[in-house]
Design a protein that fits this description.
With 292 residues, the protein is α+β, with helices and mostly antiparallel strands. It has helices spanning 2-5, 100-105, 132-138, 249-254, 270-287, and strands at 91-96, 112-116, 122-128, 144-149, 155-161, 177-179, 185-192, 199-204, 209-214, 226-231, 238-245, 259-263.
Length: 292
């Protein structure tokens, strides 16, 4: 469809932060000194980096009854609550769950995703919260709220996207707002209009440009991954990528359940890592939600 080949809607917005948190600065913003440190009683003796085996999951929406969760790492100084899991990793894997009802009759269900580290340990669980009529009438252009939960079932990140036009002839703002903790803006993704390339600008909570994201001209490729490169602000160096992984001909043709990988510098500010999660979900909805 046109939006797949011509991702030219202009501005998409991601928002992250906290009213008590000062704003980050620079191309790779670092956490501010005014963030409260994580209380020591929130850390457990078995969470000093040792993987937890067969840890029971809480009653999360759509999640399996027993999963391997990533142990809670020591909280970096001034880290926003809930984002400490992102502080020590340089890549995440995102697996969208297949909904049988959606496969059999084409009824669009709320998307659900597992977010894992490179060891296969679950970091977060993400669930879309959108009304039935909106999902089935608006399709991939629909507004949505995506709630990201930790291993206790607590909502630590909220991502919101309002309804916007998505087409070559309608270069309107296509926005997504990310909040961590919920209700607190910490960053933005701005989709920049381009006649044939998907381009995005990553901004911090002060709407200052921090990074760029650029995708390929042809979005669909058979039997290979599709990479969206994360670049420096001047676009001269590549510091990471968001990859849509090829999942096999059957799954690609008959479902819109996709797998993604995100790579970024391990020392990138955790708020910007959270923004990259939002960028990945926005890319999924814009280019890969149709399943055709």
């Amino acid at each position: 469809m046109c939006a797949d080949l011509c991702p030219i809607s202009p501005d998409s917005i991601l928002e992250l932060g906290h009213p008590d948190y000062p704003r980050s600065q620079g191309a790779h913003p670092s956490p501010s000194e005014d963030y409260p440190a994580m209380p020591m009683d929130c850390l457990h003796a078995d969470q000093a980096g040792v993987p937890v085996q067969n840890q029971q999951a809480q009653n999360l929406q759509g999640g399996p009854t027993a999963v391997l969760w990533m142990p809670l790492p020591p909280a970096p100084l001034n880290c926003p609550p809930g984002l400490e899991y992102l502080s020590q990793i340089d890549q995440v894997l995102i697996h969208q769950q297949v909904d049988l009802l959606e496969v059999l009759i084409g009824f669009e269900a709320n998307n659900k995703y597992e977010i894992k580290n490179s060891l296969g340990q679950r970091v977060y669980f993400a669930a879309e919260d959108t009304g039935c009529c909106t999902r089935n009438w608006c399709g991939p252009c629909r507004p949505f709220t995506l709630r990201i939960l930790n291993n206790l079932g607590q909502e630590v990140i909220t991502m919101e996207r309002p309804l916007r036009c998505d087409g070559c002839c309608c270069p309107c703002c296509l926005q997504e707002v990310i909040q961590a903790p919920p209700g607190v803006p910490i960053g933005y993704i701005i989709q920049t209009w381009h006649p044939y390339l998907p381009k995005f600008t990553v901004q911090n909570e002060k709407r200052e440009d921090v990074l760029k994201i650029s995708g390929p001209c042809v979005i669909f490729k058979c039997c290979t991954d599709i990479d969206f490169k994360i670049k420096s602000l001047d676009e001269k160096s590549v510091i990471g990528k968001i990859s849509k992984h090829w999942t096999g001909i059957v799954r690609e043709l008959f479902t819109d359940a996709d797998n993604f990988g995100i790579q970024f510098p391990v020392d990138l500010d955790v708020k910007m890592k959270a923004v990259m999660l939002g960028a990945c979900f926005l890319i999924d909805f814009m280019f890969f939600e149709n399943g055709d």
